[in-house]
Design a protein that fits this description.
By secondary structure, the chain is α+β, with helices and mostly antiparallel strands. It has a domain of about 100 residues: Sandwich (Jelly Rolls). About 45% of the residues lie in helices and about 25% in strands. It has eight helices and eight strands. β4 and β5 form a beta hairpin. The protein is elongated and about 55 Å long. About 20% of the residues are buried.
Length: about 190
């Protein structure tokens, strides 16, 4: 893979040159346009992806409405959690919000590395721990803050997300309608 950059890999500093080469050996670069549905709910997704360039929203459909619950961007790893862990159909959808370049991961080969390579197993565990903490923080935010507080948190700490993601998806992500988000934005200007 000619365009591979180790900086695209989360926690790459944990990996030796040999570990990086092993990871590189199970990746293939793919390009998809904005709007592409990378993964669909109720499908057993076997591949995982690392985002080289782009942003992806993860959402579920509830009562006919899309509910965004996560945005992934450069260096994030995308996979159907249930598909990856239990080889079952997932519940989530992943839609590209920008033209994107991804590294497709052969997860069967990756899991085989885990069985024989402690370095790669620890690398994956470290990433899983980081993502679990992020998920817990998102959950606690929904439990203990208002939509206004969640929006102000994004304004303060993640303006890049606000610039790259349509406002209707931001509204869904913080748990309100687009109209309610417009009212919040008008009130804080």
């Amino acid at each position: 893979m000619d365009n591979f950059n180790v900086e695209d890999i989360k926690c790459h500093e944990m990996l030796s040159s040999e570990g990086i080469e092993k990871i590189k050996s199970i990746l293939s670069e793919v390009h998809y346009p904005k709007g592409h549905l990378l993964m669909k709910s109720d499908v057993y997704e076997r591949d995982a992806y690392i985002i080289k360039k782009g942003i992806i929203r993860s959402y579920i459909i509830k009562d006919g409405k899309d509910i965004s619950f996560w945005f992934a961007r450069e260096r994030d790893i995308i996979s159907s959690s249930i598909g990856y862990a239990f080889q079952k159909k997932g519940y989530e959808n992943y839609e590209l919000l920008e033209d994107s370049i991804l590294y497709r991961i052969n997860t069967d080969k990756l899991k085989n590395f885990y069985k024989t390579d402690l370095e790669l197993a620890n690398w994956a565990r470290n990433i899983t721990e980081i993502e679990a903490i992020k998920a817990e923080k998102r959950f606690l935010s929904y439990m203990f803050t208002t939509p206004l507080e969640r929006y102000l948190e994004l304004l303060e700490n993640d303006t890049e997300l606000l610039q790259r993601v349509p406002l209707k998806e931001i509204a869904s992500y913080i748990g309100i309608s687009a109209v309610s988000l417009s009212r919040i934005r008008a009130r804080i200007k």
